[in-house]
Structure formats: C-alpha cells, structure tokens
Amino acid sequence: MMAIIKLFTAKNRYFVKETKQLLACTVLYFEGLSPENLITLLKGDNYKAFKKYFSKEEKGLKLEILTSADGSFARCMVFKFIPYNYETVSEAIALSSQQVAELLSLQNSK
C-alpha cells in the first residue's frame, strides 16, 4: 500500500511517498450519523445517501479526501470532533474515481 507523507507547513500538503506526487485535499462535513455509519456508507455503493447527511458548516464528522491529479490515487479518512480537535476514527479508505466524483458533487448541492 502506498504511504502518504504529510508535510507540516503553514498549509498541509500531502504526497504519495513512492511517486512524490502531490495530492489534493478536500474536506467535507457530515451530521446526523455515527462515525461507524459514515465508514459503512463509504465502503458501500449507495453514495446518494450522503446528500442526506452532508453539511456546509464545519461541524459534525469530518471527511478528508486525498486525490491525485490523474485520478490514480484516492483515499479518505473520517475524523470525529473531540473538544477542541478532530481525532481520526478510521484507517485510510480507498475510493474509486466515481466515488470521489459523487462525494465532491455534494459541495455544489443544497
């Protein structure tokens, strides 16, 4: 499995260790479901269900999606807010380019 390197600078930057390829990071927020339910949805194929829980506000569960420019690499991780920080509640979950497209389309909804 490819390793991801996070560089600590003023802005977080992610790279695929083996290829040194820069990854884009998109953050989405979800409310009204548990971390376990969000992980189950991510591993399933009913991505239309995400629209029900998507939040434009920065609260609830946080989903970080890392994608390469060519679409060959896509992973995500789920974070839960524990005052005063978000903590990781999942391992990296592999996504297909279609799954990423459906998740990113949520930003233009509501």
How are the secondary structure elements laid out?
Elements: E1 4-7, E2 13-16, E3 21-30, H1 35-43, H2 50-53, E4 54-55, E5 61-68, E6 74-82, E7 85-88, E8 93-94, H3 97-104
Antiparallel strand pairs: 1-2, 2-3, 3-4, 3-5, 5-6, 6-7, 6-8
Characterize the overall form: globular
Q: Would you report the number of β strands?
A: 8
C-alpha end-to-end distance: 36 Å
Helical segment count: 3
Task: State the helicity in percent bands.
Answer: 10-25%
Q: Detail the poorly predicted runs.
A: none
Provide the structure class.
alpha+beta
**How big is the Rg?**
14 Å
The whole-number mean of residue pLDDT values reads: 84
Number of domains: 1
Taking the sheet with the most strands, its summary is: 8 strands, antiparallel
Q: Strand-and-helix sequence, N→C?
A: EEEHHEEEEEH
Strand content: 35-45%
